[in-house]
Design brief:
Elements (H helix, E strand, L loop, with lengths): L3 E3 L5 E3 L3 H23 L5 H7 L7 H23 L2 H25 L6 H22 L8
Antiparallel strand pairs: 1-2
Length: about 140
């Protein structure tokens, strides 16, 4: 029971496994991405651009690129649990850094009154992906090795 500790108020608490922590952070960031894209449908003129084809993803190649890019966080939910620590750590650092940079760029270039929610979510996603990088970087090593 070395992982168990008692808090000030006598509530049990357990050390969270790094894989589970990373997976939950990827799940959280994925949900934020989904909500951001869903809420964006409420921005005036957004749906008319989707219907007319006048939007950022206006070709099959762009749609496929976006699908591949946004599949990464979703797949990292499972890969963070499945992969061995060494590869897991490297992928979390690489993809966490990549998505942090993307979301910071989106946050600083997207602000309009109608997109304040989008900037908020982009900043929140940046915090979550930064935490992914931090926890992956600080991945505990086995003792005695």
């Amino acid at each position: 029971m070395e992982n168990k500790k008692i808090t000030q108020y006598n509530y049990e608490d357990f050390k969270i496994n790094t894989k589970i922590l990373l997976s939950s952070l990827w799940a959280s960031v994925t949900l934020c991405y989904l909500y951001g894209d869903y809420f964006e449908l409420y921005v005036p003129q957004k749906t008319s651009g989707l219907v007319s084809g006048q939007n950022l993803l206006d070709s099959p190649a762009k749609l496929m690129s976006a699908a591949v890019l946004l599949a990464i966080p979703s797949v990292m939910v499972a890969l963070s649990i499945i992969l061995k620590p060494r590869v897991n750590r490297v992928l979390n650092i690489i993809f966490g850094t990549m998505f942090t940079a993307i979301m910071v760029l989106i946050a600083v270039t997207s602000f309009t009154p109608w997109k304040a929610f989008y900037v908020f979510l982009a900043l929140l996603e940046s915090v979550l992906t930064s935490l992914i990088v931090w926890y992956a970087w600080k991945w505990p090593r086995q003792r005695g090795i």
